[in-house]
Structures are given as C-alpha cells and as structure tokens.
Design goal:
With about 350 residues, this protein is of the alpha/beta class. It is about 35% helix and about 15% strand. The structure holds phosphoenolpyruvate and manganese (II) ion (MN).
Length: about 350
C-alpha cells in the first residue's frame, strides 16, 4: 500500500502517518519527491485499511498495490489450475482441455431431462447441466422441482455417464445438492450471497461461480475468494454476459473477461453463451468467440422442444444449431492446442 501525500504536506503530517502505521505493527518508508512525498507501507494490508489513513491531514490518496484476493490470484499461484469433476474424475477443466457442458435450463420432467441429456451427450458434452432449484426473477415463474429435480438429474447421470452441475440457491440446501450433484453452481443473482458462498466453500464438491449481472472482475474474484477462504479451491468462473445499455440481447457477453480473468486468476473460465445471448441464433457465434478467446469450457442450454420449455426456451439449442456447436467444439479448441474428448479418443 502506498500513501501519497498532498503537494506541500507538512513534515509533521508525514510523521503522523508513519507513526500510525508503526503503531499498527507495520513499517513505513518515506520517499520525498520534488512535488510530493510518498510513504510506502509494508505489513498487514487489512490492518492498514482499518487505520483510516485517507482522512489524516496532508494525505492525498491511499493506493493499494497488491490484489485484495489472495487464494484465487495468479499473483500468488502462477500456474493455471485444472479442476477435476465427477465420480470417475474424468472431466478436467483447465488450460489443456476443452469441455462442453450442456443440458436443459431447468429440470421440468424426467422425460424432458433425459431427452436433453441424451442430446447433450450426442453433441459431445462431457458434463450435464440442469436446474432443480431455479432463481427466477419473477415469483410467478416456474421455480424448479427442487429435490425431485435433483433425483432426476442423478438418474440422467446414470443414463448418460455425464457428471452433473446444478444450481444451489439456499445455504440450507447445500448439503442435499452436494449429495446429488458433482458440481455446485452459484448463479448470477447469488454471486454476492456471502453465506451461500461460505456454505459451498465448506463442501468437497467443485463450484461453478457465475459472474454477477453488474460485477467487476475484482468483485467476481472476491466472491471466489469467499469460497476459497473456507477451504474449497475447486472453483471454475463462468462469464454469462453482463448488464449494459444494449437491449437487443439479453446480456452482453464480455469476451474480454476470458483473457483478463485468466491473467488475474489461476482459476479456469467457462463461458455461457446461452444466458448471454438469450437468443438461439446467437449462441453458436458467441460460443465460437469464447473458444477463440481461450475459454476452458462452454456451457449451453439444450431442449428437445424449446417452444414448450418452462424456462428460457428461446435460447435453447436443438437440431442444426446444436450440430453446429458440436462441430465448433470439435474443431476450434484443437486448433488452440486443447484436447477435446473427441481428439483424446482419436
Ligand atoms: C442458469 O444457468 O440456469 C442460470 C439461472 O443462469 P444465470 O445465473 O447466469 O442467470
Ligand atoms: Mn436459464
């Protein structure tokens, strides 16, 4: 941390800053420039934040130089992490692989889920998605099947062999969801639900953490830090589009998030083009862009009959669009040096 004094700050104002830092157990190094004096602080940044240095006479600015997140930062962990998912431990999300995660937005019925799960597997997905607990913007919208939905997902895993990622919305449900699923999803609307983040940080299942609708990279990584701080470092970050002034798309996919967050953190980055676009015809182009930007996985909605879907039908893939996505997943990541399930078999 660096304290930048105002031009013309008096020597006793500088000394007061130094004394306050030293009283808190830190060290302070003074550097006198022509215009300004700068005080460099060494020690516990969290303790310094409580000193209210900004309000002291003569202080211009207090600038933090190290990242506020530690466990998830690239700074403290230079190698990219690979997260292993599933009972067989055969799904790896990280820098050398590419993973397609697909499935229905919501588990509606057993039949609908099995159909979507089969479509996902046939398209080359190695993980199944599906919501049993749905965090809906409207209280009048379909809220998900809850426990029954988790049971259906577990059956779909048996049927397809694909590990399951599903959302948890309440800390009280974390244990139950962790018993049924292979990976826990924290949705956009819950990115800063701190008790929920702490609860998933205390279980031994990997977590997929979606970016909040208006979250900065730092806020997103601080949310990941909440999970890591409780002992669970098996975290995958998911960019799913952010809220901007544009109304033609459901959300604006922030492609920069992929290389930028890779630079800031060692955690893998997944892109969800379905919830970004909100429109089927945009899903494949956005998925291609995400792959080109270096996404470690793509997560998409599929549905056998989107017109009858209880949730997010307009963005669900089927037929030709799903075939196109499967083709892109076979070809593009391999060009970028990643192993896909198809290329691993070859
Ligand atoms: C979802 O993936 O089902 C979902 C609700 O997404 P988001 O939290 O990104 O809106
Ligand atoms: Mn959805």
């Amino acid at each position: 941390m660096v304290v930048v004094m105002r031009p013309g700050a008096a020597p006793d104002e500088v000394d007061a800053v130094v004394a306050r830092v030293q009283a808190a157990g830190g060290s302070a190094f003074i550097s006198r420039g022509v215009q300004r004096t700068i005080v460099g602080l060494v020690g516990d940044v969290v303790a310094f934040q409580g000193l209210n240095l900004r309000a002291m006479p003569g202080v211009g600015e207090v600038v933090r130089v190290s990242k506020p997140y530690k466990l998830v930062s690239r700074e403290n962990h230079p190698d990219a992490s690979t997260i292993t998912v599933g009972p067989a431990g055969n799904v790896h999300i990280g820098p050398d692989t590419f993973v397609l995660i697909a499935g229905p937005c919501a588990v509606e019925t057993r039949e609908q889920t099995f159909e979507a799960a089969t479509m996902a597997r046939d398209a080359g997905a190695t993980m199944l998605r599906g919501g049993a607990y749905k965090p809906r913007t409207s209280p009048y919208a379909f809220q998900g099947l809850g426990l029954r939905g988790l049971e259906i997902l577990a059956e779909a895993r048996e049927l397809t062999g694909l590990p399951v990622v599903t959302e948890v919305v309440d800390p009280a449900d974390v244990k139950q969801v962790a018993e049924h699923a292979d990976m826990l999803q924290i949705g956009t609307r819950n990115m800063q639900n701190f008790p929920l983040l702490q609860a998933v940080g205390s279980v031994s299942k990997p977590v997929l953490l979606k970016r909040g609708l208006t979250a900065t990279y730092e806020e997103w990584l601080m949310a990941a830090e909440y999970i890591a701080q409780r002992g669970n470092l098996d975290i995958v970050l998911c960019e799913r589009g952010i809220r901007t002034f544009e109304t033609a798309v459901r959300n604006t996919l922030d492609v920069s998030a992929v290389p930028m967050v890779h630079a800031l953190s060692h955690l893998p980055v997944v892109v969800d083009p379905s919830h970004s676009a909100g429109k089927r015809e945009l899903v494949v182009p956005l998925a291609r862009a995400a792959m080109a930007a270096g996404a470690d996985a793509i997560m998409v909605d599929v549905h056998a009959d989107p017109t009858a879907a209880l949730c997010d039908g307009p963005q669900a893939l089927y037929g030709e669009a799903l075939d196109e996505l499967a083709e892109a997943c076979r070809l593009l990541p391999a060009l970028l040096g990643r192993t896909t399930p198809g290329s691993a078999r070859a």
